[in-house]
Amino acid sequence: MRHDITLKVNGEVWPLDVEPTDVLLEVLRTRVGVTSPKPGCERGDCGSCTVLLDGRTVRSCLVLAVEVDGHEVVTVEGLSLDGLTALQEWLVERSAFQCGYCAPGVILSAAELLADTPHPSRHDVQEAIAGNLCRCTGYVPIIDAVLAAVQASADPIAREG
Length: 161
Ligand code: FES
Ligand code: FES
Fold this sequence. Notes:
about 160 residues; alpha+beta; DNA polymerase, domain 1; binds FE2/S2 (inorganic) cluster; single chain; 2 domains; 5-stranded mixed sheet; Ubiquitin-like (UB roll)
């Protein structure tokens, strides 16, 4: 039996009907058209499907859409609705990613950290993105870029406009 739910995604309200087994990752990608959360392991290990749910990172491959009825999801698309944040600018500036598959999840994990801890240590950044598997970079350029953004901007996750 299908269920009617309402999701707020990147500021927009989406009334949706979903099966009880529909996973948030697929609903976002195929029904809402938000494709930055990526399918990877689809069992909670890689972090490529990371989204912010009510401001906290979750692995959207492990969340049922019916569980998040009435809640708010933010993806990288929503983080940069009015222009890239300084965090994103610095990741680009430093060429922090290679293939970029991990990038949306890494950016959201870093954004969650910076919302809680505006002046993180290198270790804090390392810990925050540890759940996002990056096969390409060895993490050093990503961590350097996050720290550069923190140093250069008073609020690296504010929208630049
Ligand atoms: S696809 Fe969700 S954690 Fe890997
Ligand atoms: S840049 Fe390729 S997986 Fe991270």
